[in-house]
Write a structure and sequence with these properties.
globular; 6 helices; mainly alpha; 163 residues
Length: 163
Amino acid sequence: MDKGPYNQQPTATQPMTVGMGGNRNAKNKPMKQDGRAWSFGLCSCSGACGTCKTRCTALWCPCVVYGRNKQRLEHLNRAGYPDPEHGGCVNDDCLVHGLLTFCVGFGWILQIPLRGNIRTRYNIAGGACGDCCTTFCCSPCELTQGSQEIQLEEQSFVAHPQP
């Protein structure tokens, strides 16, 4: 009896962890060849504590959310555990974004590579063109979505204490 090229039963989707860090697919989204979907939709309000606060901050002062997201992601990449300061409040990245936003209206351009870095870390499908359109058209929603994705990994450390 010829089984053909398929000789293994399918298995459940496993949480994605790579090297140091927490669960990078905390909602166990199905993995496709080009990556998985975002854990939260662009305009979804997950009901999680802080989501509405983050969305309001992203609407009225996007530089703060951008700076926090960048700091939190860089800390996860560098140290392998969540930033104890949760990104802080105002940092250099926040100031640069704020100057570009309020002086010339182009702060959203800094968000494009950050969104790409988030997609890469969490193996989320998409590309630079989509990132550009998303950040230009709906910057507060994009910042909130990125924050939620980072927060899911940070929350996965609750069961595994920091060093």
